[in-house]
Amino acid sequence: MKRRQFLKTTSVLPITATTGFPLSVDVQAEPFPVPPPLAFREERSTLKITGVRMVRPRPKRPLPEYTPAPGSWSTGGVEVANPMSIYPKYKAKRELFMADDLGPEAVEITTDKGIKGIGFGGPGAGFVIEKHLTKLLVGEDPFDIERLWDTMWRSTLYYGRKGLVVHAISAVDLALWDIVGIALGVPIYRLLGGETKPRIPAYCTGNDSEQHVKFGFRKLKLAIPYGPADGRDGMKKNVDLVRRTRELLGPEGEIMLDCWMAFTERYTLDLAEMLEPFRVYWMEECLPPDDYAGFGRLNAQIRSTRIVTGEHEYTRYGFRLLLEYKAASIWQPDMNWCGGLTELRYISALAAAHDIPVIPHGGWRGGGPHYILAAPNAPWCEMFLPPPGGPPEVYQRFEEENQITRGPDGIYMRPPDRPGFGWELVTD
After folding, report:
1. Which DSSP letter does residue 229 get?
2. How far apart are CA 245 and CA 5, in angstroms?
3. Which of 223, 93, 103 is nearest to 168 (CA)?
4. Rounded alpha-carbon distances, angstroms, from residue 258 to 12, 188, 222, 403
5. pLDDT digits over 93-119, tens only?
6. DSSP letters for 371-418
7. Which residues, in sequence order, are CB contacts of 328 under 8 Å at separation 6+?
8. What does the alpha-carbon distance between residue 295 and residue 184 come to, in Å, rounded to a whole number?
9. Fold matches, 49-185 and 190-426
10. Looking at residues 188-196, what average pLDDT do you find?
11. What is the CB neighbour count within 10 angstroms for residue 355?
């Protein structure tokens, strides 16, 4: 067809050589059909926040009480390396130096339509919420999550940015997401874009390895017992723990190590070298969380395993520093601490842009599974199995509540399909 004939038969007039875009369109051309608006498209949320209070939620069906089997790491009687291990007075138990009860960490937000949302934060969250954040929330629309997050963040910059202030923002943020999910009648993972995987591979944290393997886990994270203060003998004991776990798991299972801010660079390098025969998947939180340069050096020098961190990091700005220092191969934000689901989405997007997996700390707690199910770069979920020695009901309930299934690679789980986060909790 010649150019003159083409122009007579098309509704779009010729385009200029400089712009590359049509200059005009034949008004007689048949328009594309426009679908009718969805029923809610023109509606705005009419919900208003009427109350904010700190609560201590409990399950609707509490588990039976029991005494864990002797020697379980979860009893507190087993030594675990920690930042205070250099001081003999505090070495044996974390409870010896950790803060006493700082008050409730969960918040319940009520709306004028009777919808209530619950969110979990971290230690100290209640004080900030009660004394400051509540006045920014009452009367607001809980659907305005982004604006409310930004309001809370900006208003606390002069005394916050990390720690308990962000714990408080996290709790409020999660409660708002819970309200929105309940109001719309959908689980949170649907609001995040739906499923990217049919179920979530899970790993188990703790040193009750025989129980965990018997339950079906093929990915285990060990709490390392000894640090630099224990010298070469302690390091050999750490290696022996990993060796025994590898023998228990076999060659195909994965082993991770939780070092909980207890090591130095030199100790980490030496331990990593000694552990090479046992194929450790990662070493976690080897250094104090603010030592970005140290993590960067470890990540560059150690090739036998992955260096990961992020449990005690806060907001997109902290994780940007991890990125700038190339400090970790995997990021581990905690949804209840890092700024809630709203901020976790920003952190996850930053990681995705650089092909960094995100495996949240304590991922099975709270709303973590909803995020993991919906995030393509979140491959695993951390879990804690109830301590050994309990009646069968304890472990059966654990399976039911976490929708656990078993496969060739171990344990899988799913979040609840109930609206919001799907909490089944009672508040006083």
Report:
1. G
2. 78
3. 103
4. 64, 29, 6, 26
5. 888 999 999 999 999 999 999 999 999
6. HHHH-TT---EEE-PPPTT--HHHHHHHHHHTT-EEETTEEEE----S
7. 295, 299, 306, 307, 308, 309, 310, 322, 356
8. 43
9. no
10. 98
11. 7
Q: Where are the beta strands (DSSP E) in 184-299?
A: 200-205, 219-223, 254-258, 280-284
Q: Are 399 and 385 in contact (CB under 8 A)?
A: no
DSSP letter string, 151-174: HHHHHTTTT-SSTHHHHHHHHHHH
- CATH code, residues 190-426: 3.20.20.120
Selection from 95, 349, 79, 340 nearest residue 227 by Cα: 79
> How crowded is the C-beta side of 138, counted as CA atoms within 13 Å?
10
243 in Cβ contact with 100 (< 8 Å): no
CA triplet 416, 421, 426: central angle to 5 degrees? 95
Catalytic residue among 167, 212, 312, 361: 361
**Hey, where are the domains in the chain?**
49-185, 190-426
* Three-class DSSP category at 270: helix
Strand-strand pairing, 410-413 and 405-407:
antiparallel
Per-residue pLDDT reduced to its tens digit, 322-354: 999 999 999 999 999 999 999 999 999 999 999
State the first-to-last Cα distance of the chain, in angstroms, to the nearest integer: 79
Q: Which of 324, 323, 321 is nearest to 290 (CA)?
A: 321
What is the DSSP track for 55-99? E--EESSPPPP-PPPTT-GGGS-S----TTTTSTTTSS-GGGTS-
Find out whether 107 and 125 touch, Cβ atoms under 8 Å. yes
Percent of the chain with pLDDT over 70: 89
Phi, psi of 222 (to 5 degrees): -95, 140
Give the phi and the psi of residue 221 in degrees, each rounded to 5: -115, 125
> What length is written for the chain?
428
Q: Is 361 a catalytic residue?
A: yes
Tell me, yes or no, if the pTM score tops 0.85. Answer: yes
Nearest Cα to Cα of residue 340 among 119, 155, 59: 119
Residue 381: both structure tokens together: 């979920």
Name the CATH superfamily, with its identifier, for domain 49-185: Enolase-like, N-terminal domain (3.30.390.10)
